[in-house]
Each structure stands twice: as structure tokens, then as C-alpha cells.
Amino acid sequence: MSNHLNLPARKRIALVAHDGCKDDLLDWAQHNREELSRHQLFGTGGTGTLIAKATGLKVERFLSGPLGGDQQIGAAISTHELDILIFFWDPLEAQPHDPDVKALLRLAVLHNIPTASNRSTADFLITSHLFDQEYERQVEDYGAVLRRTQEELIEDLVEDDDDD
Questions:
Q1: Active site residues
Q2: Could you please report the per-residue DSSP string of the chain?
Q3: pLDDT digits (tens, 9 = 90+) for 102-150
């Protein structure tokens, strides 16, 4: 069973980058400054600060990624407080917080939000005609799935008791 949630025309966008990708994200944000100015921006500590300084745009900041910022962004995705994730991550550099990064990306997929992990995908997202419009996204009702699984488990237990 799935629900429909609206992404507003004014998106809430998380901007995140690993150290090896920060320059690329900064360049992308400067190039897309006008478009980004029409949306609400969020970032992890260091990345958010750099983007705000480079573009002059207001960027609400979470903690630094390794200090919990990735988890804060994941929580905001889970509670439908973020609509898009732009996360330029470095596939060649092991990160001490790799489990947090994996969890963040998993939540973005789980909650079906548009996600860009590199500049090409970010370019496709920001130039989409849907970027400045309301968009109805489908989100699986995992609560219903969990309730169904629990009910099936209880039924199995009851059947096992009946067999004794």
C-alpha cells in the first residue's frame, strides 16, 4: 500500500559533499545560484557554510557529517522535512562514517525523494520541469507492511499452538 505526499513547488533541499567533492558542489551551487535561491537550502556543517559564503544564499546547517549531520538529514527525510538530497559523495575515498552515509542514502530511497549523487544527476534534477512545481510522490506505507508482518507472525504462532 502506498501513500501520496506532495513535494511543494518551493523545495527543501539538502546539500552535502564529502571533502573530495566539495569544490564540485560549490561550483555547481554557484552555477545554479538563481534556481537554488527560490528554494530552502540545508547543508551539513562545513558544506553548508561553504555554500552560503560562496553563493550568498541562506543555508540552514546541521552538524558536520561525521559528527551526526548525515543522521540529522536522514531524520529530516524520515519526517518529511526535506524534499531533495544533493549528496556529492566520493566513491574512491573510504569515509570513517560510511555506515551513516549508507543509512542516509537508504532513507532517501525508502522515502522516495529525488537524490543526486554526482553533478550530472544534479544537473538533470535542477533542470527538470518538475523542480519548480508541486509533485505528488508515492511513498510506501511501511507501517502497514510491518503491521501485516506482525499479524502474520501472530497467526503463525496461533496455528502452531493449535497443532500442539
A1: 70
A2: -EEEEEEPSS-EEEEEE-GGGHHHHHHHHHHTHHHHTTSEEEE-HHHHHHHHHHH---EEE---GGGTHHHHHHHHHHTT---EEEEE--TTS--TTHHHHHHHHHHHHHTT--EESSHHHHHHHHTSTTTTS-EEEEEE-HHHHHHHHHHHHHHHHHHHHHH-
A3: 889 999 999 999 999 999 999 999 999 999 999 999 887 767 666 667 7
Pairing of strands 2-7, 135-140: antiparallel
Hunting for cell 542516509 — which residue is that?
Answer: 104
pTM of this structure: 0.84
Nearest CA-CA partner of 85 in 73, 68, 102, 99: 73
| Beta-bridge partners for 4 | 138
d(C-alpha 10, C-alpha 7), whole Å: 8
